[in-house]
Amino acid sequence: MESAVTLRNVTYFYPLSTSPALEDVSLEIRRGEFAVIAGPSGGGKSTLVRILLGLIPHIYGGELRGEVLVGGVNVIEKGFKAIASSIGVVLQNPENQIVNAVVEEEVAFTLENLLYKPEEIRERVDEAIRTLEIDHLRKRLTHTLSSGELQKVAIASALALDSRILVFDEPLAHLDPCGARELASILHKLCRERGITVIVAEHRLAELLRYADRVIVLNKKILFDGAPASAIGKMLEAGVEVPPVSKLFEELGKSPVPLHVDSKAISVIASDIANCRATHAGSLASDRRSAATYSSERVITAEDLWYRYPNGRLALKGVSLEVFRGDFIAIVGANGAGKTTLVRHFNGLLKPWKGRVRVFGKDTRFSSVAELARSVGIVFQNPLHQFFERTVLREVLFTLSNFGCTNCVEKALEVLRAFGLEKLAERSPYELSVGEQRRLAIASILAYEPPIIVLDEPTAGIDYSLKLELLKMLARIAERGKTVIVVSHDTEFLALAPITRVVVMADGRVVASGDPREVFYDLEILKSSRVTPPQIVELVKQLGLEGACRPLSSREFAEYLKRCRGAH
Questions:
Q1: Does 409 fall in a domain?
Q2: Is the Cβ–Cβ distance between 190 and 196 less than 8 Å?
Q3: How many domains does the chain divide into?
Q4: Range list of H helices, 390-515
Q5: Which of 315, 407, 311 is nearest to 352 (CA)?
Q6: pLDDT (tens digit, 9 = 90+) per residue, 114-169?
Q7: Is residue 258 part of a domain?
Q8: 186 vs 176: CA distance, rounded Å
Q9: pTM score of the predicted model
Q10: For residue 262, what are the domain limits?
């Protein structure tokens, strides 16, 4: 089969760097192949994408050795202009890619620049919008879209180009789980029906692995290149997040390791528990604190909250919610459900159209953002929205100095060490990778330890090891009586967190609120809200075990199964 992409002995150094971002990388991706590039943050995934696009070395500079062919074109010699019409791209941060005010104009933009005929542009735009199921967004202003909606628009723009090669850098980062599943299916269809080559660099792999032809595990060097089913061991060694059902089988020492919940996986676990029906639900629930018994002090109260954006769109419709001191709340829902709009009311960035929000008894309508920020720290979806300073260290110092810190430099360095950013202290925040920028944004807020901490999609763009570090840090903060509110599509991350309550939003309303083991096992309400439960929940449901146990993570379910074995 003809080659779409070829790299031979590629080594690359960024400007002023003495260590390679990629070292002796050789690979060939054939036409019509679906290839997934996995690896830890800083492992070179985005660098590889930039090389394929011709941005390295022509835009980023540095020293690039080896040979790079894309569609038979030598990209190092010819540059990115030579392949512009044959390769489509979706970048990590969709805001960096959107240049037009209206959605359909954005989807048409590249085609117009390449001088396609108007009638062909209309046909391609219509097909791309239909494929992504975003016709309801066609006339929307791009600046009013959620991050997930922006991501879909960026993907539609790439599909409209009808390139023979599509390259995606973290395309699932801002999508809700249903959207991620749908996109993975669309990419699979493009490969099979149109023969398009799809290359995806991604941390969220569960949906992609069921369709991928091959997985390339990259950590500066290629650690593995082969079939997804054979990649699990190397992925775990490299600190890459694998599907929970795969991790469950690894923890139980069973093989072959499945990539998703299928009939074989169900059969293996079913045979393992055929003679084991002991009830252990209580022991599973004991590690999660009860907010009601922890504190009865209300720290945030939303009363019949409505919000209308200037363009007339109603984003919140009568939301009522109480948050208590020491709560660890997860807010879940589809893209555009109103999650970000809600939490931006908590520190006064948005003011109610109708209704009211109180923070420690203060009505936010009559309080400044600066005043509320002392009580509520928010980590934004896009970390670039909260950077002000020239260096990483100064960014953390800026936050600390605004809140009366003593020994600020010492405290700032301590925080940077905790987030693995100490060696980057003198770098510009804008030179960091997306994962590093997200860590810095979180570190800047956690540094001054406000009593309420809100994190909006904190796991987007960070790898599994950093997720685990974030979990530990948030758990320590919650144990000290702080209130933590996490807006997230990442239900696998939430399955590992000591959350006390899950709030489900849909169409600007709160449609469910309760204990994680109740809400995540209510598949009817989740489906109607386009929320995907943790994968282990799907497995337990299909096994019919929810009456005996309600685990949320592979670790919890493995512990239950091991206790079952011991009891018989």
A1: no
A2: yes
A3: 1
A4: 392-401, 408-418, 434-446, 464-479, 491-496
A5: 315
A6: 889 999 999 999 999 998 889 999 999 998 888 778 888 998 998 898 888 999 99
A7: yes
A8: 15
A9: 0.84
A10: 243-272+541-568
